[in-house]
Amino acid sequence: MIIDISRLLNTNTPTWPGDTPFSYQLTWSQEETGSVNVGQITTSCHTATHVDAPFHFKDRGMTIEQLPLEIFVGDALVVDVTTKGEITIQDFDGLNLKDVRRVLLKTDTWTNDLFPETIPIIDPELGPFFLENGIELLGVDLPSVDPLDSKTLDTHHSLLKNGVHILEGLNLTDVEPGLYRLTALPLKVEGADGSPVRAILETL
C-alpha cells in the first residue's frame, strides 16, 4: 500500500511568512492552442513538503542537485512524538535503530492549512546521536527542524555537521509508527537551496 505523505499544493498552501506563495495558472489553454493546456508554477523552494539542501543555510554547502539520491529512497522509521514539546535523545530509548538510515518524526503539530504559530523543539544533540546510530535523513511534519524564530538554526547545522539530511513539511497524520519504505526525491534544479518533493511511504 502507498501512503501519500505530501502536503497539497494550491493557493491555500501555507508558506513561511513573507516567502513566495504557491500559485499555478494556465499560460495557454487548449482553446487557445488548439491542442494542449500548458501551465506554470510559482513557489518557494521551501513550500509544503520539501528537502533542504545544505546551501539553504550554509553558503558553501551542497545544492539540491548535488545531494545523493539514495538518501531519499529506502526504509524509514516513523517515530511517534506527538506528546512532546521538546524532542530529545531520550525519545529514542527502547527503539531498535539497527540498520535504520532514515527517521521521520510524527508530531501532529501541523494538521491544517494554517502556518503553525509554535512547533516542538528538536534538540541539536540529535545530530551526533544520529551519526552514532548511522541515521542519514531526518524527516519532520513541521515547516522547520528549528524554532520558527531561530536565526542561528542550531539543529540545521548540527544535522549537517553530522551528515544528516533534512526533509520538512511532511503530512504524517494518518501514518502509524513503524517501518516503511520512503520515496521523497527532490527535483534536479541546478544551484537550488531546496526542492519540493512528492513524498510517499510504502508498507513493508
TrEMBL record:
Q: Where does Zn(2+) 1 bind?
A: H46, H50, D52, E168
Question: Binding positions for Zn(2+) 2?
Answer: D52, H156, E168
In short, the EC number is 3.5.1.9
Q: List ligand-binding residues for substrate.
A: W16
Pathway assignment: Amino-acid degradation; L-tryptophan degradation via kynurenine pathway; L-kynurenine from L-tryptophan: step 2/2
Enzyme category, top tier: hydrolase
InterPro entries noted in UniProt: KFase/CYL, KFase_sf, Kynurenine_formamidase_bac
Cofactor: record remark? Binds 2 zinc ions per subunit.
NCBIfam families the record matches = trp_arylform
Task: Relate the protein's function as given in its record.
Answer: Catalyzes the hydrolysis of N-formyl-L-kynurenine to L-kynurenine, the second step in the kynurenine pathway of tryptophan degradation.
- What do we know about how this protein assembles, alone or with others? Homodimer.
* Name of protein: Kynurenine formamidase
What species does this protein belong to? Piscibacillus halophilus
This protein's encoding gene? kynB
